[in-house]
Amino acid sequence: MNPELLRNLWLQFSPQRTLAAPLILGAIVALVAFGTSTSWSSMAWTANGGFFLIAYLWGARRAVNVLADEITAGTWDGQRMSSIGPWTMAWGKLLGGTAYVWYCAAICLLVFAVAQVKLGEAAELPLKLTLQITGALFVQGLALLLALVMVGKGRRLGRRFVAFAQGGAILIGFFGISHLLLPAGGLRWVSDLAQSVTWFGIDFPIDQFVLLTQCLFLAWTLVGLYRLMGSELQVPQGPWVWALFSLFFIAYYQGLAILEDSGSTTVRLGSALLVAASLYYIAIFAQAHDIVRYRWLLQSSREDKARRAWALTPLWMPSLLIAAVLAVCFRYSEATMASAHPELRGLLVLQNVIDPRALPIALILFMLRDLGIVLLLNFASRPKSPDLAAILYLIVLYGVGGGLAIVLGAYQLLPWLIPGAGGNGLTVLAAPLIEIVVVFALVWRRWVAQDQALRPQPA
Amino acid sequence: MIRVENLTFDYPGHRALSDISFAIQPRTITALVGPNGAGKTTLLRCLAALDRPGAGRVMLDDIDVHEAPRAAHERMAFLPDFFGVYDDLTVRHCLDYKARAHGVPSGRRTMAIGSAAERLGIADRLNDYAGTLSRGLKQRLAIAQAIIHAPQVALLDEPAAGLDPEARYSLAAVFRGLRADGMTLIVSSHILAELEDYSTDLLAIRDGVIVDHHALLDELRTQDRAAPMQLHLARADQRIGSILASLAGVSDIVVDGLSATFAFTGTLDAQHALLKRLLDEGLPVAEFAPLHGTLQDSYLALMRQQGSA
What we know:
The structure holds 2 protein chains of 2 kinds.
Chain A lengths: L2 H10 L2 H21 L4 H34 L2 H5 L5 H12 L1 H20 L6 H28 L6 H21 L3 H9 L4 E4 L2 E4 H27 L7 H17 L8 H22 L4 H12 L3 H7 L3 H25 L1 H7 L10 H20 L7 H22 L6 H4 L7 H30 L5
Antiparallel strand pairs in A: 1-2
Chain B lengths: L1 E10 L2 E11 L4 E5 L6 H8 L7 E6 L2 E2 L4 H5 L2 E4 L11 H11 L4 H14 L15 H12 L6 E5 L7 H16 L3 E5 L3 H7 L2 E6 L2 E7 L10 E8 L6 H6 L4 E7 L2 E7 L2 H13 L4 E6 L4 H14 L1
Parallel strand pairs in B: 3-8, 3-9, 6-7, 7-8
Antiparallel strand pairs in B: 1-2, 1-4, 4-5, 9-10, 11-13, 11-14, 12-13
Helix pairs in contact in B: 3-4, 3-5, 6-7
């Protein structure tokens, strides 16, 4: 048996706790039953709500705490020194840490199942149960994934970070499924309109498509857990899985693209570029950017140590490459789009503010500038919350700066603040290029200063 | 047993280990000493494959610990400075979990638990919750957990920190016992008097570089190294100074009445030859032995020397 799972079972299933769960939950069910004269719909609603509270809210917290507790108690290094492999450790922690949660959640599911049968909705029961279970597993997996990301960034997983990982997992895993991964589906639920989703031209009933989406992203979450756990256990990792996930994510969104006629290539490339750019920013903030990593990456590359260099390659590199390829493709298909679909080009040209031809290349340049800002803050001799500071700077640059320039009509400033905006092709490319030169000159200064500190001192 | 080659480890803005190399012989207890911030903990964590160095490698026999960390961990134990135990598990469950985590086969698990508990003197506490144990007993439990899979190498970072003198004394006995059973230990500590009780070798580190590495026990001395010696005569003999001065490997001679101290460079065989020569010269030798200074004296002298260099 998985030692990590077994240890968690020992910890969580004392006779007292094992008895307490059915007694407390049974009392709540009895209260609802007597209070509503055994209304099965109330019972189903209560069981469903109970499952959400237990499996999603509590489950996500437990999934984070299963790692946070180890770090706080000083037992994490002992686990890292064991012979347990990354996959065994990952699923042992995911299922072990939430074992008692699932015990309680199973009681809720049982009550829900009985209520559904009594309501005559037994036919839909397997799908509904599978949706609930995969959804909760996805959220719990995401919570543990976020916890591992933060541990990888050198965080100590205090209360603030536990709450962040729990909240982030619920936000992405629960609301994300309906509103981010299924933008059209979310609207349909709210307006209670059509109950199907078209994906790569195939019509799916919405519940089935949510299940498919949950299963796909749950699978990727498990792959991510395996990889991040491998990093913690010092198994060398390259960024190829992240690159594959990026391609999958782009393809997934392509399936949801509404336009189906032959002239929509540019729009498809545009939407793919936006997804790739989003993934690039996620990659930037998902990893630590201390100067030591980059220094050894450079050294390994110089010494032709390809395996070591690959293991040190940051995630943003493949993301930037994918985005750059998409940007170039977008740029060269834009002319076709402009002639075939002038109305679509009109969507991009906001009061003559956006130059669609320069937009993709300008976007890549801005992405590079933003990387420079992140590196600049991380390469400080004593960096303090560099991620938070970088996010703040970017909000100020794009949101406040760009917004003010538009509101005040200062369009000549826009090439410095918003990709592809406010000028002719030359200006919108020259402005971010100058910004890149300035930012990376500052990065270079910090690099040299840190590099000198790391050189062996003369005897 | 352990071979460290050109190990370099950086923190942002600070080089913690600078191109260090050394080898650890099997069945030794190496005292890893150095001032705060010298790089002791970083070195132990690199040896344990918990942190990956920027350059260099650590070989455990034929295993590169950073290329095959799981394989290395099967043969290694590490007790960090700030260790923890599972307070809500019994001692038996704590040991059982570690045995499973290290892949001890089910047929041998009960025996491994009994043996580790017996060795660390916690066999009568197996059914107690770890959270109820004293600091000293928790320390013993942590060591028992670390060695449950009978590793070849144990790395211990400040294992005696926070222990009372009695607990420290019994811990020293445990370490000697582990060495007697064939284990190789590297122990980092600030309490030099305690290290002296059981260490066979000294590895001194300062500012991320090795400043000294030598055997402390005479029987392990294999290489030529000046060691202080003391000689007592049964009756006065004026020739003692001149005879000692004429012998190879002898230096820094100080004669004081019936006694003489000097530095001698040579192996145990050379030491035997020296004594034979003194007797052959007709000196009335009553005592002839290495002059033991404390580990603390050597360490302070070394650090002063490094500081003034």
